[in-house]
Write a structure and sequence with these properties.
234 residues; TIM Barrel; eight-stranded parallel barrel; 9 helices; globular; binds 2-phosphoglycolic acid
């Protein structure tokens, strides 16, 4: 069983979501399908697909105009939320500490956080990938986690770029993440790969050791692109 998570970012409509739910409802798959959609679509009846938010506030409630709390997301019936997606780190200034606070509130409200970590092109070229990933995991995962979390490795330079790291690079990073989680008492935590996943590369990527699924941006928007990824592995 693999986890196939879609991230619609600021795309799509209620009509698109209802169509996607319909298209996926007849699929025969053991895989867990999650769709992280804009907040306005979170209260949709989603059948066998689990819905998730793309971010939650680091605060519980209060005077934080424009923010949406983990409890509000949970009240919609959503089960998951992304935290620390590279676009939130890049455009909203999220740091590992912010991401950790968001993940803790997600957990406190019964959501499974999908905690994203990844290196920029600059960091990669400076040979800092492993350092950034290890500190990203250690600092973004709350202490004393007692329920499920998911980690997503998203090489920031490859998101939406149509390029992916080599299989060996993905294997090296995922092995590091697995070892780091094990040392934190979180062995067995699912680790997703995300960035430029499509039907044509999904099976190869999900065959790499310690890749427990994928986080898909652009190719999760249309059933014609998303379904081949979901059924690429049994
Ligand atoms: P992409 O996005 O699949 O379009 O590269 C991945 C993501 O941002 O989660």
């Amino acid at each position: 069983m693999k986890i196939i998570a879609g991230n619609w970012k600021m795309n799509g409509s209620h009509e698109n979501l209802n169509q996607m739910i319909k298209d996926l409802s007849s699929l025969e798959t053991q895989n867990k399908v999650i769709l992280c959609v804009p907040y306005t679509m979170l209260c949709t009846e989603s059948g066998c697909i689990a819905l998730g938010a793309q971010d939650v506030s680091q605060y519980e409630r209060g005077a934080y105009t424009g923010e949406v709390s983990a409890s509000m997301v949970a009240a919609c019936g959503a089960k998951y939320t992304l935290v620390g997606h590279s676009e939130c780190r890049a455009y909203h200034g999220d740091t590992n500490a912010t991401v950790c606070a968001k993940a803790a509130l997600a957990l406190a409200n019964g959501l499974t956080p999908i905690i994203c970590v990844g290196e920029t092109m600059e960091e990669k070229q400076a040979g800092k990938t492993m350092e950034i990933i290890e500190s990203g995991v250690r600092e973004s995962v709350p202490v004393d986690v007692k329920s499920d979390i998911i980690i997503a490795y998203e090489p920031r330079w490859a998101i939406g770029a149509g390029i992916t790291p080599t299989d060996a690079e993905i294997a090296e990073v995922h092995t590091l993440i697995a070892k780091t989680l094990y040392s934190m008492g979180l062995g067995g935590t699912p680790i997703l790969y995300g960035a430029s996943v499509k039907g044509a590369n999904a099976l190869a990527i999900m065959s790499i050791p310690h890749v427990d699924g994928v986080l898909v941006g652009g190719a999760s928007l249309k059933s014609d692109d998303f379904i081949p990824i979901i059924i690429s592995v049994k």
